[in-house]
Amino acid sequence: MRLLAILSVIFCLAAHAEDHQKQIWMKGEEYFLFSYQASTNILISESCIPLDKLKCDAAKALKKKHSLQSPKTNVGGKNPGAIVCKDLLKKEIRILKNHKDDENSFCVFEDGSMISAINLQSLLKE
């Protein structure tokens, strides 16, 4: 029954053909709804949409003009966005999976909103 409910939600979400697509990511039994905007390549909590309204901390972090310097140490293959999240913004990283069992790292903000860590890489100064 639970699987049927999840599949129903996924089917309904897939029916929307807009600039953004809804996606479900999970950790164990906990499910999170995200919006992927193809035009900007941003994957962010659905509660943050529309982005231009700055409805959540994750959207505000993207819009805020940061002058973050790249870490001086060699990152050794680590996700640069995860480094921005954890070391520079002092936020938590959460690893989630989608229905295909793909993993993605997300930056978690105080209000519970999340953004794919790779989207934070743009905040670094070269």
Summarize the model shown.
This protein is α+β, with helices and mostly antiparallel strands and 126 residues long. The protein has 3 helices and 8 strands; from the N terminus they run H-E-E-E-H-E-H-E-E-E-E.
Note the topology:
Blueprint (H helix, E strand, L loop, with lengths): L1 H13 L5 E8 L2 E8 L4 E4 L11 H7 L4 E2 L10 H9 L3 E6 L5 E6 L5 E3 L7 E2 L1
Parallel strand pairs: 4-8
Antiparallel strand pairs: 1-2, 2-3, 5-6, 6-7
What does this entry look like structurally?
- With 126 residues, the chain is an alpha+beta fold.
- The chain has one domain (2-125).
- It has three helices and eight strands; from the N terminus they run αβββαβαββββ.
- The strands form three sheets. The chain has a three-stranded antiparallel sheet.
- The radius of gyration is 15 Å and the shape is globular.
- Mean pLDDT is 81; it is low at 11-17.
- Residues 1-17 form the signal peptide.
Give the termini separation: 50 Å
Based on CA inertia axes, which overall geometry fits? Answer: globular
Strand elements, count: 8
How many domains, as an integer?
Answer: 1
Structural class: alpha+beta
Low-pLDDT runs: 11-17
Helicity level, as a percent range?
10-25%
Order of helices and strands: HEEEHEHEEEE
Tally of alpha and pi helices = 3
Instruction: Indicate the multimeric state.
Output: single chain
Strand order of the largest sheet: 1-2-3
Task: Please report which band the strand proportion falls in: under 5%, 5-15%, 15-25%, 25-35%, 35-45% or over 45%.
Answer: 25-35%
- How much is the average pLDDT? 81
Rg over CA atoms, rounded to whole Å, is 15 Å
Signal peptide: 1-17
Keywords: Signal
